[in-house]
Amino acid sequence: MSELRYPNESKGYRDARAALLKDEQELADKVKSVAEKRRKLPLGGQLKEDYVFQWANDGKVGKIVKFSELFADKDTLLLYSFMFGPNWDKPCPSCTSLVDGFDRTWYQVTQGASFVAIAKAPAERINAWAKQRGWSQIWLVSGSETPYLVKLLLLQKSNTASTETCEQSRLLIKRRLFSTKPAAR
Asked: How far apart are the first and last CA of the chain?
């Protein structure tokens, strides 16, 4: 296969482009290495309680749901916390974009695990935003009346959790989400 070149490109450009490509490959290799280490992490501690949330999906808005019920028929729960505060008019645009993607690919997201998106806004406001965005597939809950808060959580039915709380690039969350699923381990 021949190397792609741009018309009239300079040697300086080609050298810089080759160096950038090398750096990009090293970064991709590092991300894969970190994901492998994450999959090998032991599970964390027990949850303090069976937290109570409110459904934010149509037909269930405001109804109580316990954390343990979010597993449904799966052994693993992925919980994505999107930034939509109790007094905010709209949620975070980056979080909205991610939830757009989760909703459109719900069949893939929920293959080996239950998936729930949670926010601190009241259930009625989450539901209104979901209708505006066309979210109809993924489960949505409000944590407005619970102390529970986390960015990303992988939970096994044994109530042991691995949490991700550090601030990381939103662009990596989908990759990280899928690399934590037990099937990826």
From this structure: 35
Query: For the residues 37-46, what does the mean pLDDT come to?
Result: 77
Bridge partner residues of 55 (DSSP): 141
Question: Taking the CB of residue 44, how many other CB atoms lie within 10 A of it?
Answer: 14
Residue 117 · residue 109 · CB < 8 Å: no
pTM of the predicted model as reported, rounded to 2 decimal places: 0.69
Q: If DSSP codes are grouped into helix, strand and coil, which group holds residue 180?
A: helix
What would the pLDDT profile of 84-113 be if each residue is shown by its tens digit? 989 999 999 988 998 999 899 888 878 888
Measured CA to CA, the distance from residue 62 to residue 127 in angstroms comes to 10
Say which DSSP state 46 is in: B
What SS3 state is found at 58? coil
pLDDT surpassing 50 at residue 162? no
Residue range 12-19: mean pLDDT, rounded: 92
